[in-house]
Design a protein that fits this description.
two-stranded antiparallel sheet, nine-stranded mixed sheet, alpha/beta
Length: 373
């Protein structure tokens, strides 16, 4: 855990408070945003304030707020979670850190737990599919992923048995890094994922999870994991998906995030692939005829980011944070000046400033004045 003291403030304190609040089951991004807006202060200022004094501001169920109000302080929660992560060999990263997947924005998830390297300069294709595709498809999926990886595009997936793991192994066959997003905490991996982990780390890849130590996989955690896969990718490819499938959820998130979606063709009688065909029929996915099409789709977005450092920064920030960053300069500016400069509500500007501080993009000076880092 980072060095802290009883007066932790600023970026370090905000990270510790974010981690503490995120570790409470039932508190999501909306709940954290509501607390920041309604409390009117950065989370760091609540580190040692009894939770009963501010828990009512959190957007969550009454049961979650009651549980939160009767529990320890944010400092204690954050330190406990960090210590548990350290004990399990897991690291914690925040937006702007080297290990943070560059395409993921804080409005999707504010903190991640990881093991391994990031390789964020690479373009990334999410290759996803069913746990139970038709007989004989898994070797084909593995070959497809290997060709994508050999073309210079990183492969990421959900580490589940079936198509996901076949794609990770395809990337490993090409001796390239691969990212695996788990549906459990990284100290609660199921046996197939645990067997995959050392091979991923050996090739410079990484396992990621948004779940704090001790959380086991469930029907609720996998849909959450799917949005991370879509958010971290430059392009999403559905190799196989039934009509009810986590791969379809990943595709739906990709559409919301503005990522291109491709789907492999299959016979219309193949129930394991009906979901991908329906995506194509609805115009939500493009028919994928080979790995070169995946590389082209990923490369288009990569070329946009290569236009300059500003584009890379923007990819790691929410729209409101990027707008506020553009309004900051070398000289500190107060809240009134920022409100005049950007067409945002005060609560949105406050949230954007917190995001920028977490990412190391701005510095708060005395009197709540801010300047670009």
């Amino acid at each position: 855990m980072p060095e802290t003291d009883t007066h932790t403030t600023g970026r370090q304190g905000e990270r510790l408070a974010t981690l503490g609040l995120w570790s409470v089951p039932g508190v999501g991004v909306k709940g954290m945003e509501a607390l920041r807006g309604r409390a009117g202060v950065p989370l760091a200022e609540l580190l040692d304030v009894p939770a009963r004094e501010w828990a009512h501001h959190v957007e969550a169920t009454s049961e979650v707020r009651t549980h939160l109000a009767s529990g320890p302080t944010l400092r204690d929660l954050g330190e406990q979670t960090w210590d548990r992560a350290d004990a399990s060999g897991t690291q914690v990263c925040f937006p702007g850190d080297p290990a943070w997947p560059g395409r993921l924005t804080p409005d999707v998830v504010p903190v991640l737990f990881h093991r391994g390297s990031s390789c964020t300069r690479r373009r990334w294709a999410a290759l996803v599919g069913s746990r139970h595709p038709e007989t004989g498809f898994l070797p084909e999926a593995r070959r497809f992923a290997r060709e994508v990886a050999l073309s210079g595009v990183g492969v990421l997936s959900g580490a589940a048995e079936g198509v996901d793991q076949a794609c990770h192994w395809g990337a490993l066959d090409a001796s390239t890094p691969t990212w695996a997003f788990a549906g459990s905490a990284l100290d609660e991996l199921d046996p197939p994922q645990a067997r995959l982990l050392p091979h991923v780390l050996a090739e410079g890849g990484a396992f990621y999870s948004e779940l704090p130590p001790g959380v086991r996989a469930s029907k609720k955690t996998f849909p959450r994991r799917n949005r991370l896969i879509a958010g971290a990718a430059d392009v999403v490819v559905v190799l196989r998906a039934g009509q009810v499938s986590g791969a379809l959820q990943t595709a739906e998130h990709a559409v919301k995030f503005g990522r291109p979606v491709l789907a492999l063709p299959t016979d219309h009688r193949n129930e394991a692939g009906r979901g991908g065909l329906e995506l194509i029929a609805l115009g939500l996915a493009t028919l994928c005829l080979g790995p070169e099409q995946v590389v082209a789709a990923a490369g288009g977005l990569a070329a946009q980011r290569a236009a300059g450092a500003a584009a890379e920064v923007r990819g790691a920030l929410s729209e409101r944070a990027f707008a506020v960053l553009a309004a900051l300069g070398a000289q500190p500016r107060g809240m009134d000046e920022l409100l005049d400069a950007v067409p945002l509500k005060p609560a949105d500007v406050s949230a954007a400033l917190v995001e920028l501080e977490l990412a190391g993009r701005c510095i708060q000076r005395p009197g709540r004045r801010y300047e670009k880092a």
